[in-house]
Design a protein that fits this description.
Helix content: 55-70%
Number of helices: 15
Oligomer: single chain
Strand order of the largest sheet: 2-3-1-6
Number of domains: 3
Distance between the termini: 52 Å
């Protein structure tokens, strides 16, 4: 730390040798800078504050019925886009500044200068915007603020209505497109139903249920075939045991052949019941045969005395045998009929399977058509609702004020210039002159160095220092040195006094250029 302080002190001593250069340079810089500051033209600032109220009573009332745009975001966006070239050109035309622009290049330069003159700031929480403008002409500054304020209000309101109109036109265009698509989808469904009439879902019953019904009927028919085959076989067996002819010796048979046959069959049933239940197929067949014989007996007339002669003492045809042959023929015919029924049902099953495959394909294609139609119809209905919402929103924007502008501070013609800040600039010139003077003195001391202490000599030569000779200040040298110090002090104090005078004049509003 001691070495740093010694080095700084040495540099100050070296720079003090050029103190007159420093003070002269400071005077020159101050005078030049103060004259330049005094020649700077005055600029007048005009401003206006406007409060944007986006609250409205209709907002909660129209919730869900009309579109509620974020007006606050639109206002902030317009404040950012306010300095676009079209808006600045409007400002130029409203203030007649465009008369000075002879060509496109001149208009571009005018727009660039306006962008530097105008500014806008906002307080987000309060929705309070401040529009300001600077110009050498105070009246022009006011007109610039007024023009920019007008554009801000008009553009914000116009942008809101423009968004509503754009949305409504877009929805109308989409509705027309969806109407065409909806008509095309309806026509496609109509043609498809016409081409596939009879195969549509719900027409002709359910093929799956028909297949199940046919399969059940086939199973029942096969069971009936098995029963009929068993009956036929039993009839064949009984027919083999029965004699086609028999002799009647008049032995006083009290019953007819049918009764005898019924008794024989009943005896067989009694014998089978000893081994099986009544649900046994042979027992069921025998019971059916007995029922057929009973029915036949009821249909035949009772035998008289004349009929008894037909059986007396001669060989007669066994009527039971004939009836069994007839029953056997009926059984064979029944089996053939049942087999034909099975074939018919199988054909129906095959036809139903083919029809079901076609019906499933038709149903799949119809579902695809209905799905496309449903999506188009749903979007079409949604667009119709949105159009009504957009129309209601447009009516709200046209007939009510969704945003209100209240001018808090209207623009005024400024009476005092707002720029340049000559006090600050003059102070900066003074500080800068001191920095330049000291810097120049330090630079000269570095370019023309001297030894300011014995230690510097030892450090520079590396040799031991035997001794030193001090300055013998005679009275004449002391007087001369004192005079130079007074003169330097006077020059320094005069610079400070001059700076103070400049500040006083600026505070009093007196420009140096007017003196």
């Amino acid at each position: 730390m001691h070495e740093i302080a010694s080095e700084v002190l040495a540099q100050v001593r070296g720079a003090s040798r050029f103190k007159w250069v420093a003070i002269i340079v400071a005077w020159v810089v101050c005078l030049a800078g103060w004259v330049f500051v005094s020649q700077m033209p005055d600029k007048y600032a005009s401003s206006a504050r406007v409060h944007v109220d986006t609250r409205t009573v209709l907002r909660p009332l129209l919730s869900g019925l009309a579109i509620q745009p974020n007006v606050g975001s639109q206002v902030r966006l317009m404040s950012k886009l306010l300095f676009s070239r079209p808006n600045l050109e409007k400002v130029a035309r409203m203030t007649d500044l465009d008369l000075n622009a002879k060509d496109e290049k001149g208009m571009q330069a005018l727009v660039g200068s306006l962008k530097g003159m105008l500014s806008i700031s906002s307080a987000r929480q309060l929705d309070l915007f401040t529009i300001s403008a600077q110009n050498q002409d105070p009246k022009l500054a006011k007109r610039l603020v007024q023009s920019l304020l007008t554009i801000f209000v008009e553009e914000t309101l116009g942008e809101t209505r423009k968004d509503s109109d754009t949305a409504r036109r877009f929805i109308d265009q989409q509705i027309k497109e969806y109407e065409l698509r909806l008509v095309a989808a309806e026509k496609a469904r109509e043609e498809f139903k016409r081409d596939n009439y009879g195969s549509l879902p719900g027409q002709g019953g359910s093929h799956y249920e028909q297949l199940q019904s046919y399969a059940g009927q086939i199973e029942e028919t096969k069971l009936a075939i098995n029963e009929a085959v068993n009956r036929r076989n039993e009839l064949k067996r009984q027919l083999e045991d029965e004699e086609p002819m028999f002799e009647d010796f008049g032995g006083g048979v009290a019953s007819s052949p049918v009764d005898a046959r019924i008794q024989s069959l009943q005896a067989q049933i009694d014998s089978l019941l000893l081994k099986y239940t009544e649900r046994h197929p042979e027992i069921r067949i025998l019971k059916q045969t007995i029922a057929d014989l009973e029915k036949q007996k009821e249909e035949e007339p009772e035998l008289g005395e004349e009929d008894d002669d037909l059986y007396g003492g001669a060989t007669q045809t066994n009527p039971v045998f004939q009836q069994m042959k007839i029953a056997l023929g009926e059984a064979n015919a029944n089996i053939a009929s049942l087999k034909g029924r099975v074939r018919t049902l199988q054909k129906r099953i095959n036809a139903s399977q083919v029809a079901m495959g076609k019906s499933l394909d038709v149903e799949t294609r119809l579902k695809a058509l209905n799905r496309d139609y449903g999506i188009i119809k749903s979007n079409y209905d949604a667009l119709l609702k949105r159009r009504e919402t957009a129309r209601l929103s447009g009516n709200v924007d046209q007939n009510t004020d969704s945003v209100k502008f209240r001018i808090v501070d209207p623009p005024q013609v400024p009476s005092k210039p707002s720029a340049p800040n000559r006090i600050l600039l003059s102070s900066g010139v003074f500080v800068g002159s001191l920095v330049v003077g000291l810097g120049l003195a330090l630079l000269l001391s570095l370019l023309r160095p001297v030894f300011t202490s014995p230690q510097k000599v030892r450090d520079a030569t590396g040799l031991p220092l035997l001794g030193g000779v001090s300055m013998n200040w005679v009275p004449s040298l002391v007087d001369a040195r004192r005079k130079r110090l007074w003169k330097f002090s006077l020059a320094s104090v005069s610079l400070i006094v001059a700076f103070g005078a400049v500040l006083v004049l600026e505070v009093m509003g007196i420009n140096l250029s007017s003196i």
